């Protein structure tokens, strides 16, 4: 369990708006005192210093802040930290377990990004997509990755990377299980 | 966002009590409309009442000749529901076309229905399928529920708990997406039940979702896309914006209606 | 070629951090004691500021300071600058109005900076900004450049009559008019090159810091060229002395030009950090990015092409009105002038060209370089003209192009440029084959059977990259030289640090530059690190834009490597007790010619530093060399893109079915990275052609200020691409590199629009060809067909 961020905690939070929440991120529980307005994205970045999740628009329109909550890919900018009490949250930092996750490896192999800014969101979205099994054709992959903008225009290679991750033995239905198990193992070791 | 208080009641009764107690309180369902609005400081509720902790608002079940969907059911859950896919495949297809996967994993049917955004998809399904909106106080027929742009029959303190969709023999949805936002620019849901045919249009009218009665009459005569050949509603009263002026929108309604009928008749 | 040398598709060294969330972008940094800045922006496109009352806001919780243009003036902080002087036809210098970092007396576009609030938290700063009372006298606004030049239009800056910043021209009017007078056929078109919002996924951000002990400043910023930022901030704006200002551009999440410029926000963060005694951070939200990042394009052009009776092009003339926005951004004046008109010869041998360009102020966001910068606009003009001309002449568009290609090199165009090398016909032939051009009519018939309109369009682009010979650009008005610098530091262990003035924000420099080092010095790629983006670490350099980092930045590295090898030979001569002239260097080893005696690179590095084998008086210890490389010419990447698409006439939806790109980028260091650059360029070019367009309403409000209204290309919009290469090495730099970063964005718009107009059978459609626009155009097409029948 991590300490509450003292530096930030000194900012006056009016009592009726403040909440003590427990966020379970990448298998680790964090107790935080947050203003009700704090989005999950801001809590991850500013309070837990997990800056791998990026803010591209803050309005749920670009997918850069995609994370996985209870097995589903969601944008972390449009959910409040207080709404996510006790849920299983996986961020890009929690995906690799010693070795890279197959989707991460495939992104490297297929040059599926350039500037890297939308990449954590693309990867988390791809992990969710594979788990949903919406990968039966290129068109289906493209359609179901359309919530994640990439201004570098690496879309073609992203599609190839996703297909490759599946071809290299990542059973769609196991993608999430694998990530979650990895996290659980990590947490187990540290506990 | 401006400051607000946050509440997470565990029953609809509690939620209603909180709603009564907090002036300017808003119900928080998926948050995908409300939160961005608040972030842009275009809304400033004093309190948010999160409906996320109530099992009674979740779930999809077949009840006799209807499919009943809890208000907090996510779009993605409707899209993937075996019950919906079997009973009203057009409804599952509609859910699958909402926004993007991220939106579908958070957005709820109750939130969509209560907000009555003129570009939202669900209102078209409710209207065409002659659905009933069930609240903590009463049952409201879809025809009475949607009353214009962002206006519904919901009264103060009233909470949507379920939506009940009678099963149709044939039903389908065709949507032309706003190219940028992926909301409906013209979305048409057609449903045939016995001799009754209903055609509901979303995304197009300045008054929100509406029934296109001329198309209904044409389809009652013969339920085939050909019956709508060359038909389009009048551009008067259609939304005009940078993506589609009213004439193009009216035209698209005609095209989408034909495509919806085509889809409904070809399964 | 070794496994990691030049030409190898090496997987990127920088990837590991990006895919694990360990990249460090400006907004990821947290500085002790930091305060947050929020900019109060003008809600009006044009207004006088009568008063700013900050009293209530200052009393708000957490507020540290509120600063306005008056405070800037009191501290004698200068305005933002435009670094390229353009002279009008009459010889007069461009009319540049003042550009303060915070408005002084007037606001000129929606999003213009009125005041900055600095507070403990971002939310507090934003809350307080709402409590600032600004009294505006709203003035009429003008957003369209053509309207802005009309008599009676609102005057954006007093200094520029008719809002016209310059009336510039290039080429010989008399000979061009003469060519048109004797032409057998003249093709005329009117084009709009739509305004684009760059939208890198990482919004701009800045953190300013002041260290009172050293009286020094640090600026972390999302910049493509940190040294230029430092130079401008110190020498022109005057917020800090150059030697006491450290500018760090860490990982940068895309730029596409928009992060070249020196903006108000970073200026204010540096200045305010000293005033408030705390680090001051600012991160743009997406709305601010839409409103205040420099936009791209926004040209209106009338163009004409003259042909003789054999279908040979004999002249081209163009009149362009370029919307520059409300202020002149850092390089804005160069984009519609010297980065545009010199490309109007395209890949063609055109004996006479004359272009006139007016640069115009409007009440819109400043317009500056966006991927391609001037060259996409030129290519669009030339390639639309050529396509339409071929149609009017009843010629096959590919054959018409081939007939008119430049075939002998070097080729001097009538508009400055000397093309050094290329084989445009070879690119066209390869593209026609890859695209199965012969099968197109069959595919068109097949589409027609399904009620769809199929079209094919070409774009045979050329661009001038490798920007640029300093003396040449200096004579054209540039305020800076456009060379690049490098330092190659060989450590005693033989590992190598390369300090480059280039800056990577997605281009993969950490890999390609290392490949060059591996190739030349024979060291393992793991032993090479590329250092960039920090003015305290890296010598002065010019940064990354204009597809210059390979051609110019790597040439500087190559030059420094050559010096390292020369020095290494001297050291090796001592170690091997041989004459320096007998030492050869190959495959990472110094050997005595004709013998098997040799010493490895790492050993030489160690010997250079311990200096035991030679006298330090005869030979300086150490192994570290620097170089500045100034190119001798622009480079001229060129190629042919072919777009094949299908239109659904019922809805106007356009689907790109096939895309073929054959590019000649000269020598390629890493084909994988180059292909990625091509993909990205095409995505942005297709975005411009089909989807994107910034729209201001008449009052100057930006209607497309979010992704809900501004249509970005998404995964579902693009097909897989057929990418082919032809190679004619560039003779103008030591590596033979031409550059690849902008090609796709330059080529794509014309290819798409030529395909759409081919499908429609008429030319009456503008970018972006949205479903609505295409549907309407298809209605006209149907009407034409009915009339014809």
Automatic annotation (TrEMBL), chain A:
Classification of source organism: Bacteria, Pseudomonadati, Pseudomonadota, Alphaproteobacteria, Hyphomicrobiales
Signal peptide annotation: none
GO molecular function, one term: 2 iron, 2 sulfur cluster binding
Pfam families for this protein: Fer2, Fer2_2
Residues covered by the 2Fe-2S ferredoxin-type domain: 19-95
Protein name from the UniProt record: (2Fe-2S)-binding protein
UniProt KW keywords: 2Fe-2S, Iron, Iron-sulfur, Metal-binding, Oxidoreductase
TrEMBL record, chain B:
Pfam family for this entry, one: FAD_binding_5
Gene Ontology MF term list: FAD binding; oxidoreductase activity
Domain FAD-binding PCMH-type: start-end pairs: 1-170
Domain of life: Bacteria
Coiled-coil zones: none
Record InterPro entries: CO_DH_flav_C, CO_DH_flav_C_dom_sf, Diverse_Substr_Oxidored, FAD-bd_PCMH, FAD-bd_PCMH-like_sf, FAD-bd_PCMH_sub1, FAD-bd_PCMH_sub2, Mopterin_DH_FAD-bd
Keyword vocabulary terms for this entry: FAD, Flavoprotein, Oxidoreductase
Name by which UniProt lists this protein: Xanthine dehydrogenase family protein subunit M
Organism: Salinarimonas soli
Automatic annotation (TrEMBL), chain C:
Keyword set includes Cell membrane: no
Organism: Salinarimonas soli
Assigned keywords, A-Z: Molybdenum, Oxidoreductase
SUPFAM superfamilies: CO dehydrogenase molybdoprotein N-domain-like (SSF54665), Molybdenum cofactor-binding domain (SSF56003)
Domain Aldehyde oxidase/xanthine dehydrogenase a/b hammerhead: start-end pairs: 20-140
Record protein name field: Xanthine dehydrogenase family protein molybdopterin-binding subunit
One GO molecular-function entry: iron ion binding
Key word Oxidoreductase present: yes
Pfam families assigned to the protein according to its UniProt record, in alphabetical order: Ald_Xan_dh_C, MoCoBD_1, MoCoBD_2
């Amino acid at each position: 369990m991590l300490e509450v961020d003292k530096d930030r905690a000194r900012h006056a939070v009016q009592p009726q708006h403040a909440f003590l929440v427990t966020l379970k991120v990448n298998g680790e529980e964090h107790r935080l005192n947050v203003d009700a307005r704090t989005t999950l994205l801001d809590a991850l970045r500013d309070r837990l210093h997990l800056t791998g999740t990026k803010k591209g628009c803050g309005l749920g329109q670009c997918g850069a802040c995609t994370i996985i909550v209870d097995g589903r890919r969601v944008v972390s900018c449009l959910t409040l930290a207080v709404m996510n009490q006790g849920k299983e949250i996986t961020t890009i930092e929690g995906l690799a377990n010693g070795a890279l996750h197959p989707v991460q490896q495939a992104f490297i192999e297929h040059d599926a990004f350039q500037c890297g800014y939308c990449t954590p969101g693309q990867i988390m979205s791809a992990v969710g997509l594979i788990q949903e099994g919406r990968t039966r054709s290129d068109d289906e992959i493209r359609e179901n990755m359309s919530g994640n903008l990439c201004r570098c225009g690496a879309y073609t290679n992203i599609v190839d990377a996703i297909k490759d991750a599946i071809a290299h033995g990542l059973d769609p239905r196991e993608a999430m299980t694998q990530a979650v198990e990895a996290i659980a193992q990590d947490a187990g070791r540290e506990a | 966002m401006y400051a607000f208080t946050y509440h997470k009641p565990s029953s609809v009764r509690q939620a209603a009590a909180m709603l009564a107690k907090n002036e300017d309180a808003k119900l928080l369902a998926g948050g995908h409309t409300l939160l961005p609005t608040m972030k842009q400081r275009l809304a400033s509720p004093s309190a948010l009442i999160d409906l996320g902790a109530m099992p009674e608002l979740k779930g999809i079940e077949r009840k006799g000749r209807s499919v009943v969907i809890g208000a907090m059911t996510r779009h993605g859950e409707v899209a993937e529901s075996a019950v919906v896919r079997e009973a009203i495949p057009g409804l599952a297809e509609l859910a699958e076309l909402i926004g993007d996967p991220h939106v579908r994993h958070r957005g709820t049917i109750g939130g969509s229905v209560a907000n009555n955004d003129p570009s939202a998809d669900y209102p078209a399904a409710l209207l065409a399928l002659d659905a009933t909106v069930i609240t903590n106080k009463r049952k409201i027929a879809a025809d009475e529920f949607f009353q214009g742009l962002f206006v519904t029959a919901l009264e103060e303190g009233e909470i949507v708990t379920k939506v009940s969709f009678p099963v149709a023999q044939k039903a389908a949805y065709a949507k032309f997406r706003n190219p940028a936002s992926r909301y409906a620019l013209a979305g048409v849901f057609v449903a045939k039940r016995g001799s009754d045919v209903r055609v509901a249009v979303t995304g197009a009218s300045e008054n929100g979702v509406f029934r296109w009665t001329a198309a209904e009459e044409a389809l009652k005569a013969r339920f085939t896309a050909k019956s709508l050949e060359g038909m389009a509603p009048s551009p008067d009263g259609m939304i005009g914006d940078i993506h589609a002026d009213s004439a193009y929108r009216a035209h698209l309604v005609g095209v989408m209606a034909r495509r919806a009928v085509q889809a409904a008749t070809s399964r | 070629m070794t496994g990691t040398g030049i030409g190898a598709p090496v997987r990127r060294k920088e990837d590991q951090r990006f895919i694990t969330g360990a990249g460090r972008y400006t907004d990821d940094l947290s500085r002790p004691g930091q305060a947050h800045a929020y900019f109060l922006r003008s809600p009006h496109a044009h207004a006088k500021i009568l008063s700013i009352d900050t009293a209530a806001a200052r009393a708000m919780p957490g507020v540290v300071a509120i600063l306005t243009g008056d405070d800037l003036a009191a501290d004698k902080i200068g305005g933002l600058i435009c670094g390229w002087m353009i002279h009008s036809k009459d010889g007069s210098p461009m009319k540049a109005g003042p550009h303060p970092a915070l408005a002084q007396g007037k606001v000129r576009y929606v999003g213009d900076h009125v005041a900055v609030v600095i507070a403990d938290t971002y939310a507090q700063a934003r809350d307080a900004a709402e409590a600032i009372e600004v009294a505006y006298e709203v003035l009429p606004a003008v957003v369209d450049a053509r309207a802005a030049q009309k008599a009676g239009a609102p005057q954006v800056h007093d200094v520029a009559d008719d809002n016209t910043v310059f009336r510039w021209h290039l080429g010989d009017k008399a000979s061009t008019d003469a060519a048109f007078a004797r032409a057998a056929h003249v093709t005329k078109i009117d084009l709009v090159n739509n305004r684009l919002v760059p939208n890198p996924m990482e919004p701009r951000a800045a953190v300013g810091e002041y260290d009172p002990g050293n009286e020094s400043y640090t600026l972390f910023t999302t910049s493509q060229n940190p040294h230029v930022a430092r130079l401008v901030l110190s020498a022109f704006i005057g917020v800090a002395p150059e030697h006491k200002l450290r500018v760090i551009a860490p990982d940068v999440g895309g730029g596409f030009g928009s992060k070249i410029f020196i903006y108000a926000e970073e200026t204010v963060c540096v200045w305010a950090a000293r005033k408030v005694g705390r680090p001051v951070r600012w991160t743009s939200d997406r709305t601010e990015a839409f409103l205040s990042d420099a936009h791209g394009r926004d040209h209106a052009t009338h163009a004409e092409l003259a042909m003789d009776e054999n279908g040979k092009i004999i002249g081209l003339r163009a009149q362009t009105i370029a919307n520059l926005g409300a202020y002149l951004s850092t390089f804005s004046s160069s984009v519609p002038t010297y980065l545009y008109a010199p490309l109007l010869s395209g890949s063609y041998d055109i004996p006479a060209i004359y272009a006139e360009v007016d640069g115009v102020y409007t009440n819109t966001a400043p317009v500056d370089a966006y991927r391609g910068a001037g060259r996409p606009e030129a290519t669009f003009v030339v390639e639309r003209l050529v396509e339409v001309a071929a149609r009017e002449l009843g010629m096959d568009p590919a054959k018409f192009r081939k007939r008119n290609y430049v075939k002998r090199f070097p080729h001097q165009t009538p508009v400055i440029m000397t093309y050094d090398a290329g084989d445009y016909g070879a690119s066209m032939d390869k593209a026609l084959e890859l695209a199965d051009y012969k099968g197109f009519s069959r595919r068109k018939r097949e589409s027609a059977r399904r009620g769809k309109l199929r079209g094919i369009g070409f774009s045979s682009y050329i661009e001038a990259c490798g920007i640029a010979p300093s003396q040449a650009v200096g004579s054209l008005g540039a305020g800076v030289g456009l060379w690049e610098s490098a330092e190659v530091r060989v450590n005693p262990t033989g590992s190598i640090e390369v300090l480059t003035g280039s800056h990577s924000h997605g281009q993969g420099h950490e890999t390609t530059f290392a490949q060059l080092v591996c190739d030349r010095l024979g060291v393992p790629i793991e032993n090479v690190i590329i250092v960039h983006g920090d003015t305290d670490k890296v010598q002065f350099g010019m940064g990354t834009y204009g597809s210059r980092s390979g051609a110019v930045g790597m040439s500087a590295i190559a030059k420094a490597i050559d010096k390292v090898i020369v020095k290494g030979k001297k050291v090796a001569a001592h170690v091997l007790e041989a004459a320096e002239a007998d030492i050869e260097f190959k495959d990472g080893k110094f050997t005595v010619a004709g013998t098997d005696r040799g010493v490895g690179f790492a050993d030489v590095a160690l010997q250079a530093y311990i200096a035991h084998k030679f006298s330090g008086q005869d030979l300086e210890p150490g192994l570290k060399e620097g170089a500045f490389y100034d190119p001798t010419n622009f480079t001229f990447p060129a190629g042919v893109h072919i777009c094949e698409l299908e239109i659904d006439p019922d809805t106007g939806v356009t689907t790109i079915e096939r895309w073929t790109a054959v590019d000649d980028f000269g020598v390629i260091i890493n084909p994988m990275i180059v292909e990625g650059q091509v993909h990205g360029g095409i995505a942005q070019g297709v975005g411009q052609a089909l989807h994107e367009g910034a729209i201001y309403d008449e009052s100057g409000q930006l209607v497309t200020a979010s992704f809900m209204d501004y249509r970005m290309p998404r995964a579902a919009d693009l097909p897989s691409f057929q990418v082919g290469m032809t190679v004619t090495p560039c003779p103008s730099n030591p590596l033979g590199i031409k550059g690849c970063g902008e090609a796709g964005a330059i080529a794509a718009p014309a290819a798409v629009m030529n395909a759409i107009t081919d499908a429609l059978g008429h030319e009456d459609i503008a970018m972006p060809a949205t479903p609505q626009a295409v549907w309407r155009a298809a209605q006209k097409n149907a009407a034409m067909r009915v009339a014809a029948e």
